[in-house]
Amino acid sequence: MTTTIDEQDANNNDLVSKVKVKRAELEQMKERFAKLLLGEDMSGGGKGVSSALALTNAITNLAASVFGEQHKLAPMPEDRKRRWRREVGWLLSVTDYIVEFVASQQAGKDGSNMEIMMTQQRGDLRMNIAALKKLDAMLIGCLDNFRDQNQFWYVSKDADESEKGVQRSDKWWLPTVKVPAEGLSEESRKWMQYQKDCVNQVLKASMAINAQILGEMEIPENYIDTLPKNGRETLGDSIYKSITVDFFDPSQFLMTMDLSSELNVLDLKNKIEASIVIWKRKMNQKDSKSSWSSGISMEKREQFEERAETILILLKQRFPGLPQSSLEISKIESNKDVGHAVLESYSRVLESLASTVMNRIEDVLYADNVAQDPSLLAKKKSTSARVRVATSEDSNETPDHSPGQTPTESMTLSDFMGWSIDQEQEESNTKNGDSSPKQVEENENEKYQSYSARILARTKNSYMEKLGGIGLRSPTTRH
Fold first, then answer.
1. 3-state helix, strand, coil in the chain (%, to 5)
2. Which tens digit of pLDDT belongs to each residue from 92-135?
3. How many CA atoms lie within 13 A of 136 on its CB side?
4. Contact yes or no for 164/368 (Cβ under 8 A)
5. Is the model's pTM score more than 0.85?
6. Of 125, 220, 384, 464, which has the fewest CB atoms closer than 10 Å, so is most exposed?
7. Pair 71, 65: CB distance under 8 Å
């Protein structure tokens, strides 16, 4: 009898505890939505931001607090995982009430059919929210797959130098990776490569969705007002001449650019986007007396714009961790579409998490390569020294920093991923030594390629990794 009473008391205590947790979560949800309704201005002074921007900041800051410390290939703690699923669910629930009218058939009592209008979730939200939730689950599932692995381990950054593992990049704050002296087993190596391929597909898909949503956002007028009236002034004479030549090779163009720092890459991206906006505006300008009119033919203008968009795609592909451009920040800050705000921020934080997980996997694979070929460490140090010398020499030159910004025509998911696959196949063929006329050019530019590879490793930091080092920051305050 005593045992039964004790069990009942335990059950009652569990029930009371669950009720308290539910009430706490309910109060937290009320507080979260109150903040959104007030536009993050809890004082009620009317100085808050729009609902769309408040949602963007809420999703960004939530992801930063949940994923910002993901420095290892290991499952997320259960409490953080539950928090992410719960709170992101609250924020995504807003899109359930963004609806559109659609025609539907209704059967009458007499058996006749009539057409009526019904509401359903807006088409882009219905498709993309489901896709992003799937990508979200895939990423968290990928981290869960590393629960019982024992082929590699991490050493604290504070450990003795003799105990430290291999550091692939200059991120000294991250723990170093160690693998067995003979490296990973063949089975583990294949499994790691499979995990990398899965995460890579998530990265491509989230990048494509984010690019598509940003492309659909309207270009703010205050951004357009800051632009000069011609592309030459935006790009500078050197870049403008390189883009408008008769024969244009985008890869060769990038080889001639100074991409030695993230700032330089972002500056080039801003200039290219601004030129695209200007050229599109000129092509759509009907009034020949307008300041936006041009003496260059429509065909030439369209050709220049296509070349600029190709450069922009290459930059986004080569530097996936690049901060948002001036145009993208301007679009996000001025956006009033709540649906677009949710899709953009959700896809962006998933892209950042995928990039982080990809980097952690590449750290392990690099440690495995070093275990099999220790000479790679010597080559890495030699390359680092050459890069420092080259950067020092380049710093004596003052690059042209014209203000730049612009809209990007979005690509479909299939187009984007198809392009990426083609690029990977081309890179794979090059690495395998396939006969190609490009080999001569590659030999001539060997110094540049090793340099750009170093830059890519250095600039491939995800947004979440940067937030982890400087605290929570929303898109409105990143630059």
1. 65, 5, 30
2. 999 999 999 988 888 888 888 888 888 899 999 999 999 999 99
3. 20
4. no
5. no
6. 384
7. no
